[in-house]
Protein 1
Amino acid sequence: MAAEHSPGSTRSTPAGRTAAAGRSWWGWGRTDQALPDSECAALATMIPGLPSAPLPVPDAAALTLAPPRIRVPGSLAHLVSDGTADRAAHTYGKAYRDVVRALHGDLAAAPDLVAFPRTEAELVDLLDWAGTRNAALIPYGGGSSVVGGVEYRGGDHSGVLSLDLSAMDRVLEVDTTSRAARIQAGVLGPALERQLRDHGGGLTLRHFPQSFEFSTLGGWLATRAGGHYATLHTHIDDFVESMRVVTPAGVSESWRLPGSGAGPSPDRLFLGSEGTLGVITEAWMRLQDRPVHKASAAVLFADFADAAEAVRAISQSGLHPANCRLLDPGEAALAGAAQGGDSVLVLGVESAHHPVDGRLAELCALAADHGGRVPASASAPGGGDGDGGPAARDDAVDAWRSAFVRMPYLRDGLARMSAITETFETACTWDRFAGLYEAVRTGTAAAVKEITGSPGLVNCRLTHVYPDGPAPYFTVIAAGRRGREVAMWDEIKSAAMETLGRHGATVTHHHAVGRDHRPGYDRQRPEPFALALRAAKSALDPRGILNPGVLLGSGSPGAG
Amino acid sequence: MAAEHSPGSTRSTPAGRTAAAGRSWWGWGRTDQALPDSECAALATMIPGLPSAPLPVPDAAALTLAPPRIRVPGSLAHLVSDGTADRAAHTYGKAYRDVVRALHGDLAAAPDLVAFPRTEAELVDLLDWAGTRNAALIPYGGGSSVVGGVEYRGGDHSGVLSLDLSAMDRVLEVDTTSRAARIQAGVLGPALERQLRDHGGGLTLRHFPQSFEFSTLGGWLATRAGGHYATLHTHIDDFVESMRVVTPAGVSESWRLPGSGAGPSPDRLFLGSEGTLGVITEAWMRLQDRPVHKASAAVLFADFADAAEAVRAISQSGLHPANCRLLDPGEAALAGAAQGGDSVLVLGVESAHHPVDGRLAELCALAADHGGRVPASASAPGGGDGDGGPAARDDAVDAWRSAFVRMPYLRDGLARMSAITETFETACTWDRFAGLYEAVRTGTAAAVKEITGSPGLVNCRLTHVYPDGPAPYFTVIAAGRRGREVAMWDEIKSAAMETLGRHGATVTHHHAVGRDHRPGYDRQRPEPFALALRAAKSALDPRGILNPGVLLGSGSPGAG
């Protein structure tokens, strides 16, 4: 793969970097964590009607991709790879539909080239070149998009360059007085926390999305990721002090400010812009003191509606638990956190400064007021501070946490068995929640039955909660038909999206819009705001080369 | 004034409304609260070198304004006033320079007409008409702008219409489950809270800027006002669930959502847009339970730097006090809250659910750790829940609060004596605060000396604080020269703005940009964001009639 550099050619493996070692090109995470065939088959026995053997995993090196339609000039060649493995791994994100298509060897959307700039100047050169050639440029982040955010879907570009910032992965500066750090956008979660830890000072970003290991700071910012905190500071947005964004019209850098009222927030325009307005290269992020006091509890409810009322009371209490996740009966059973139709509320409190047992007791009392059963053993204060999310000692909490981290690998195992298994998330005000929950469960179950011919599972958990409403997260598991998995999922997803829209629930709380959520997003977004956003896009990216088809446009330059 | 309606004419007093009874046309607030001449003169003895008698207050009815250059068609005539008193009262906001100009009878900038729409449909009609006539349209809010936000300053418009939404002042709907209310933009603070109280349910918006009595919900949203909470939820932004905005390109209404990650936030584009992109007509606002537990304390510090370190520790403690205001020695003395060079830290905690004495004790302990002296009597839990801001029982707290509410009237009294007295506010990260504080105090004092020939007072308080930095609020008092007050203030202000910019401190934390802060704002705003904002403006307000010269442009259509 390591072709010699010659003017006008591209290296297969750019200098100073190798393809992400041990990473799955087709599925979630690390190859050594993927389920072996036997486990895939065993898992599939849960769901009647599936094939008996898993889909084989194609060998990336043996894939045949169309030859690249574009090539960069010699001055940029060392930054770019046209290697099959790199192109295959950068074709899709990690949505269910992405995994299935990769397993079926459907890689028609593969980018022509993958670029790995090491500096902002190199990124600017790549952007300039793409502009002159009308090449689409797709910021890849960590590649964990589950909404078609990193996949080119047509338009009249001359070619497609996937932009991988993994070489820009440093914590550049730490201000321990203001508790903030300047961090490059390409860093993955664990490396970010490791560098903060190495710096000393006991500071942490403490942003732990489920994708933590395999997603980047830049991706979190571009998609308004949801993190560790179930209340108060749920989105990464709140931790942004300033951002630096390379646009085709120039570099935008906001001032480091703890707060400001000077016009509309520049950062808030780029937060959630999903690579359509510019490429985020670094940000000053607000940090936390590493918590030393922690306590958690799992509260059981016989009635889900009671549990939801308990969560509402907690969300409106001003107690701000770090963790406040409610698993409905199906989700609790699937996670092994409860049985017999109980719902489980996982509560966690933490502080770097103060004991938190009293706060946990207040939370448990609120839960008990609403019919929750607080196990005597459940309010043990816990230590430990893992990088992977809330640490806790309670059995139900542990069960939930293991399932949380393991879930994407199970999903891939089931995908190999042609089971349909995917998630979607939303948020709505409390007055609408009961109706939404019922409508999504019954509506999606009906769609599953109609589309797959068999009943499926539709479970729900609340991942984040606000005083004025929860963010429900739905999991759907159903028997697919081999070769028809994607089409079936798309139909189910479309029915679910329609239900969300009908109930005034957002098309996404923290998975972003990408290309998959466009129908719901286009309905939700106020039309004058769409006009403003299109105008901003035209001003910053006049040639329409940045992530075409995401948020705006049809993929063609100039389309709305 | 109440001329009969005839086609093509305008009524002096539109049907269904009278001019704001008891409101000062030239200065702050209510006429019955203004200082009598004798008190003005007595106050002025504090400052050597002032004239012995106050400027007289011109009689609004006796003012001569240029005849209106525009008139509305008969169908709109009942919504519009061309009365001298209405036009005079809508000429300026309430900045020092506005008050002085009004006192000198300088009303060349008076709007041609003042419109009082009662419904959104009427507002749309006015907007459409203004567009066809190239008339500038200036949303007035409550008229409390201190940054030239409501004053026309030229351009090539055919005329100027000041837009007063005071007839759109209702709480339309309350959702007690989600704790939110749909509220019309024209309502003033007290009427808003009164309607919420009348509705029952114990809910409150609890947004108490210093201008509370004389500013509107729409104004708060358009300017990203700073409110009651010194920590955590400082700006009105965080309480917005959805907004409805009338733009020349159509009505924008975001969905009611507790949280969302669907693209850049539409609300965040309109928050802080200061009437340049559209007119906010209503919003769903997140409410709070009315607090029943309150406690407050005033902590004294011999050293201001220690006090600032205490505030930093508190801001980073996760204790989230509702009040955390630090007065430097000059400010404390002026407010009568401390003497002998002490700084005063006013702390307040409150909750609708839980006793708060423990939290106050933790805060006081943190303050004591940094050298604060906590008076034995100071941590008395207080009751009461006034509409005017934090309620408290402590003497120093009371002294500060009285001064806070009374300050604008004192400023006007001093203005009548040709004293220069005005405030500006900012925010910066903690690592820069000590340097900024020193630079603003010495630099502004030097500017005062140079420009006025006498030393002045430059005091500081912290109004809001964040884990990564404070929002300092500076007060300047100096001897002006009659007839030269505005020019002198502008020079002092310009020097201060330059100092802020040099230290990377925002040009405004919650006073907005308006026209007065444009130089600092233009420097602070990233240029690509300016491109995007100009493009958004052109898309939503293609004729450039909305509040020209604020945030963008020079006042002329098409200017950047």
Note: The CA atoms of residues 30 and 231 of chain B lie 30 Å apart.
Protein 2
Amino acid sequence: MFRSHTCGELRLQNVNSQVTLAGWVQTVRKFGSITFVDLRDRYGITQLLFGEELNAMLDENPLGREFVLQVTGIVSERSNKNKNIPTGDIEINVESFKILNKSAVPPFTIQDDTDGGDDLRMKYRFLDLRRNAVKKNLELRYAVNRATRDYLHQQGFMDIETPFLIKSTPEGARDFVVPSRMNPGQFYALPQSPQTFKQLLMVSGYDRYYQIVKCFRDEDLRADRQPEFTQIDCEMAFVEQEDILNMFEGLIKYIFKAVKNIDYTEAVERMTWEDAMWNYGNDKPDIRFDMKVANLKSAFNKAGSIVATGELINGAGFGVFDNAETVLAIAVPGASEYTRKQIDELTDWVKRPQVGMQGMVNIKCNADGTFKSSVDKFFSEDKLKAIAAFANAKPGDLILILAGPEERTRKAISDLRLELGERLGLRKKNEYRLLWVLDFPLFEYAEEDNRWVARHHPFTSPKPSHIEVMINNDPVIENAAEYLKHPYSNIKANAYDMVLNGNEIGGGSIRIFQRELQEKMFSALGMSKEEALHKFGFLLGAFEYGAPPHGGIAFGFDRLCAILGGSESIRDFIAFPKNNSGRDVMLDAPATIDDKQLQELQIQLDLEKKA
Amino acid sequence: MFRSHTCGELRLQNVNSQVTLAGWVQTVRKFGSITFVDLRDRYGITQLLFGEELNAMLDENPLGREFVLQVTGIVSERSNKNKNIPTGDIEINVESFKILNKSAVPPFTIQDDTDGGDDLRMKYRFLDLRRNAVKKNLELRYAVNRATRDYLHQQGFMDIETPFLIKSTPEGARDFVVPSRMNPGQFYALPQSPQTFKQLLMVSGYDRYYQIVKCFRDEDLRADRQPEFTQIDCEMAFVEQEDILNMFEGLIKYIFKAVKNIDYTEAVERMTWEDAMWNYGNDKPDIRFDMKVANLKSAFNKAGSIVATGELINGAGFGVFDNAETVLAIAVPGASEYTRKQIDELTDWVKRPQVGMQGMVNIKCNADGTFKSSVDKFFSEDKLKAIAAFANAKPGDLILILAGPEERTRKAISDLRLELGERLGLRKKNEYRLLWVLDFPLFEYAEEDNRWVARHHPFTSPKPSHIEVMINNDPVIENAAEYLKHPYSNIKANAYDMVLNGNEIGGGSIRIFQRELQEKMFSALGMSKEEALHKFGFLLGAFEYGAPPHGGIAFGFDRLCAILGGSESIRDFIAFPKNNSGRDVMLDAPATIDDKQLQELQIQLDLEKKA
């Protein structure tokens, strides 16, 4: 061993012992004939004191930042103690030292507030990883990993590894593929998730399966998406939705306790997808604060399960409302005294291209019970009062109203709600609110192909009471514009998402486990019998040999860690992430490969000529 | 929940409770108006009793093997108890039942001794996985996984995930590559191991890293090799070889205790690579039994560290020995009374093409102290006695001698030793003997390229005392035939293998951590400066910024599990293995992909025309 103790370990009780430490030089401070060095390792920082004699040797072998140093010396009590670090009471009176390795001057400082930009830190990721801020993230990630395994083990789950070289079944996202040298002309695919394998394991009788596993999607990368990402992947047999919800809110609560020491004792709230969309404009509402959306005109739910309330605003002569497909309002608590400037700024905010609104109407609900609105001339005080009541606004609140096409307006009011929640400090960093969103639609309509696609995935079971609707109706959509009138629009799935502070952290479903129903699902999605057999014959086959009822869930591990770490960016919680072009800039990968490799794989490049 | 208890849970103390079970129909036995069903799940088997009334319903809905069944009933004491299963004292008096899913007749029986052949079982792997024999293997695998994580966690190791989409650095085995759609013409590679990443993590200060991780090698598959396999991958900083040996024999002992309840308290034996080759003809000797190899002629170690003993046999006029490069003997304990037939059979065994010997000489060391040999006419009783003494043969032993070219003969005697150990019952199933093999050569000579290759990998450090030899000598081999005279032949590495019962279960090394030495290593392997920078520039760069001394090890997880499970085949311990052509016959993967996928990747097939 190069050390007797770590740099985070020594305390007053160690005073007078001889110790050997090894680590990195964080700082060097010379005071006349004495030199102080802060020596850093994974566990902490310890101050070293080089006295007169050794100082001369240091002059010959000067220490630089990030040098790897080994010292032997005596633990001594410090006169000027540093209360900010656990080792701050002591220092090492160095007797001998050895430079184990030198370091060039690092391209950025190894500190919490580094002077390195993103690109530089990614290129020198091995240095970035030395920073305490990044190290804490990876430690948190490991703690979440560990807690997950402990809980699932206690609950009787088995970690079973599923293969990485599988079959390409293009449905949903794009697969990464791997040419097979031994089977020329054929390709493996990397799994987008172990979905079908975990279902097969249920058929095989392993009734509680889990894995913390890498998955791959070759999609155009948006900010904070990675081509390879990690999932906590779970499946259970002989269960109903209720069992899964209980089991996995237990998991997240266990993680809260183990990792954040939070006792999340209350039951996890539940909300249907329709309610989430109606009340928050969003299927992953942040319920740390209220500020619900009021639908002033038409219900988003064209299927009609919620009564439209257009009479509040229609016919007042205000064309913007009259002509809009949707008019949505939120009541911002205590904001009735916002200045013109503040409101203009918010209006500009919703007019930005990312939000895309034409404008914003406001109603100030004054503390004295009166109202002041930008549309005073169209709406009487009584009307304004009625709108305020409908929007749950109290005296002192500011009502903000957006009008426009349904989907865009819904997203805009949701964004605005989150933005104001942020500005008003309602999205508290240290508050965690879990939510189950339930009863998702089974299908979505894909305009470009004029067909149904599975909202979750093709293995998701309809609600039992909706199975008949699926079986008894032809999926064909005669009139694309009226797809909402097709009975498939109303079919709900036995699917659920877990939402934490406005982020979807996991989702799953009860699966189809009968061959006939699965075949019907494939055909509803426009797959021919041959295609279904070619892609999923193994699963259909397995369903013939005694498949049990089953269901499961997968959590986005990277995102879960990021949220628990209080960050928006998953990249900060991945040791070696890729950039937005899918590149590892440290490795400089992907890269060209040798002609010999291409020949062995019996493929060649076929690059598009650039204009 | 579809059940109140599992099929392995109920005991006499549950008698009279109403329970609900769900599982698979293992057997159906009708006795007049009563039917017995064995219901199976992951946890066990419980006997169900269908009385007269329900029997009529069974007639309408007949149960078949592997049907998924849910029953509710009363736990009752059995009159004819089955002592072979933990639930054998009770049965369920069924009150109601529901067939949750039917099953076609499975293509083979779901039993320990199945009637299914390999191919059929692989195609229907989801059924094969139901068999108790396979389930026990996966449970053992999970137990090893769990024990590994527990131990390494206790020792302060952190699980840190490394990327799967990396850069191809063809050196050693062939990479699987993944075309990048976002970076046309460029490819990722799948990792053969996280080697460089774990070293970077050491540079980053994460001084105890581990992962249980999938690795990929596109090699021609021999029996029992998989294109994707799992490693326990570990690395430590600020350590010397001794620290690593202690840490990881601790791991394996911990696994023994946790998984097999074996207290492996004795120190793990250690042996140099030279001694292993000399005494066992093999670098992974099975030390559960002795039967060491005696080198009757030239030492295998041409470098000359062990004295040759040719005087025992040379010049006796027996041309086979005189002309052979190597003559090797083993003394088979208690086999002096083998019949002519038995010896002929052994001679045939060594003459098989897999072993490739021309013949075999024997000396019977009779119990009365006399000798009888197939080469009596060349060797006097005194000579035979001297040979017997040298071969450590006792009265009653049979000495077997093989002669021929060095490498083949060494392998043959090693194979023969293992075969006889097996036949004599010396390789006891339930005995586990660990061994560290140390001081491997740093380089091997690659005849085809007339250059040195790294025996372990190019990141392995030479023994400190051998570094000078490496630095001060030109790697060029003037005379290929005399490569053994090149000083590089004598350089030993700080590398170690862990051997369990004759299987290499893990291997590792202390790494190079200085840029200059790493560059020297790349150049010794015939890599140009440019090539080294292109492939490993990130690592060389990292070594400039304060790399600590470090080393590590990787265990073959599949093999470790197989050995602990008492099997030769790793395939039995992988949930979804591939066959010898790298195919998953259940999925039918790899497979062709859509033209659209090829176009998006900007590659095309370039299939060789078959003659």
Note: The domain at 12-101 of chain B is CATH 2.40.50.140 (OB fold (Dihydrolipoamide Acetyltransferase, E2P)).
